[in-house]
Amino acid sequence: MALQPSLRPLIVAGRYDAPHTLDIFIDYVCPYSAKIALVIDSVLKPLLDAGGKYDGKVKAIARLQVQPWHGTSTFTHEAALAVARVSPQDFWKFSLVLFKNQGDYFDIPSSQLTPLQIREKLVALAATVIGKDKAEEVKDLLTLKGSPNGGVAVTDELKYTIKFSRQNSIHVSPTVLWDGLVAGEIGSSWGEKEWTDFFTTKVTV
Fold first, then answer.
1. 3-state DSSP call for residue 46?
2. Span 5-202: which CATH code?
3. What is the rounded end-to-end Cα distance, in angstroms, of the chain?
4. Does the pLDDT of residue 69 top 70, yes or no?
5. What pLDDT score was predicted for residue 1?
6. How far is CA 84 from the centre of its chain?
7. What Pfam family is a match, any one (predicted)?
8. Is the pLDDT of residue 164 over 80?
């Protein structure tokens, strides 16, 4: 599937030019997305990255799926996009840390925080992954500037991810596409056996 160049860090497993594509739509405050994120890290990356059985054949793209019924969803995705810009190689590492700490951004724990306070928490979390100096760059990207309703520096990337989800009629997270079509059989609880069986029947290169 298409991916604008600035979002190449969202390819979290496999090579950029691999002919088969898994688009995995995830939301940072969705518990089921957290489950599939762990699977991406423990199962898919070993299979798709260098030396894996499907190295050069399949790539996996983390498609950021903002769920607007969770108030902090937009902020968490903005933070991930800012990290992707400042420290592309750490995007997925930060994503995993964000999933590990997602409870801090659930509706009730975050209900008394202002948007600025939520962004400050996310910058502090980013600092644990990319260091304080780069986290200051993330903070700058997440600072409201310009027009009163102009968003932050990564708003355009956020718009792209949302528009991509909408045009593909993605409603829930996680949802997985295989070569552009929804693969409804794939679940967040799939393990190595299920994924290996899936690739055995689907990979044609």
1. helix
2. 3.40.30.10
3. 17
4. yes
5. 64
6. 10
7. Thioredoxin_4
8. yes
pLDDT surpasses 80 at 92: yes
Q: Are the C-beta atoms of 168 and 177 separated by less than 8 Å?
A: yes
Considering Cα of 106, then 107, then 108, then 111, what sign does the dihedral take? positive
- Is residue 122 a contact partner of residue 75, using CB atoms and an 8 Å limit? yes
185 CB neighbour count, 10 Å cutoff: 10
Average confidence (pLDDT) over 162-168: 95
CA pair distance 7, 23, nearest whole angstrom: 13
Three-state DSSP state, 196: helix
Pairwise CA distance, residues 45 & 60, whole Å: 9
Asked if 27 contacts 67 with a C-beta cutoff of 8 angstroms, the reply is yes
CA distance 190 to 11: 20
Question: pTM value?
Answer: 0.95
Mean pLDDT across the stretch 126-154?
96
Give per-residue pLDDT as tens, 104-120: 999 999 999 999 999 99
Residue 60, helix vs strand vs coil: strand
**Contact by Cβ (8 Å): 198, 186:** yes
